[in-house]
Amino acid sequence: MKIINKLLYEFYSPLKSESQRIFFIDFLRFSAIILMIIYHTGYDLNFFKLAPINLRAPFWYYLPRVIVPLFLFSSGISLNYKAKRGSISHNFTLLRFRIFKIGFYALLISISTYFLFPKNWIYFGTLHCISSCSLIACLFYGLSWQPLMTGILIQLNYFLNIIPFSDPMDSIQIKSIDYISLYPWAGVFLIGMGLSSFLIKSLSAYKCPHKLRLISYISQKSLPIYLLHQIIIFGILFGVSKLV
User: H or E element: which one contains 177?
Assistant: First the structure.
């Protein structure tokens, strides 16, 4: 209950100073959130057999493959953006807090899905990947082109298979409902880190228009929305399925 109360507090807390927010980052994260809600609504409609949705159709197949890089790319940008606004000791404190905070919620998701869906529980999903990428980011703290080149090399190796690499988690005989491997997705995160200075310098002048302030608000609330939206959608459709 305390966790739910904290999430609700984060959701209803006021928007942070807009002068420090970059609309480009907010828009990327907002897009990922909206697409995620659309995907999970379709997934749950299919799960409860309320709509004949083919999750292997091109739209539904590629949708999560757009959502994940949007989350990871924007996370890489925002992490480096925050790192340039404080002292080294302060930034490492924030980084540790970020890693443990996201890691804690990732663990919570693993535990809850293990009891709800024991055959398809989430052992390494989106939050697990973001938390792990934030840990990797410690190696690239204060650097610019190094994370960019590392991320590009990871992506090139993945698509061209120059150095064969097998995911060690492939040996786990569990078909998780949300599995996001570090390879190659950490490469997207690092590319975001590497491009952050250029993007922020180029786009920082573009502030969120007042009419689109909702985008910044939803973006800032991405973590509580991520954690609560599926509970709400699943609960509503479960009730509808019982009525039907």
Answer: none
Distance CA 23, CA 205 (A): 9
Residues in the chain: 244
For 36, counting Cβ atoms within 10 Å of its Cβ (0-12 exposed, 13-18 middle, 19+ buried), the class is buried
Joined together, the tokens standing for residue 143 give 């650097």
SS3 of 98-110: HHHHHHHHHHHHH
User: How many CA atoms lie less than 13 Å away from 238 in the CB half-sphere?
Assistant: 6
Cα–Cα distance for residue pair 165/157, rounded to 1 Å: 9
Residue pLDDT, tens place only, 94-153:
777 788 889 999 999 999 999 988 888 999 999 999 999 998 988 887 777 899 999 999
Cβ neighbours, 10 Å, residue 73: 25
Q: Given this model, what pLDDT does residue 2 score? A: 57
Q: Residue 199 corresponds to which tokens in the numbers above? A: 């993007």
What's the Cα-to-Cα distance from 167 to each of 172, 179, 183, 233, rounded to whole Å? Answer: 10, 12, 7, 32
- Give backbone dihedrals phi and psi of 169, rounded to 5 degrees, phi first: -85, 0
**Residue 17 has which token pair?**
């100073």
Q: In the chain, what is the greatest distance between 2 CA atoms, to the nearest angstrom?
A: 57
Alpha helices in 117-181 (DSSP H): 126-136, 145-160
Q: Which amino acid is at 162?
A: I
3 or 180: which carries more pLDDT confidence? 180
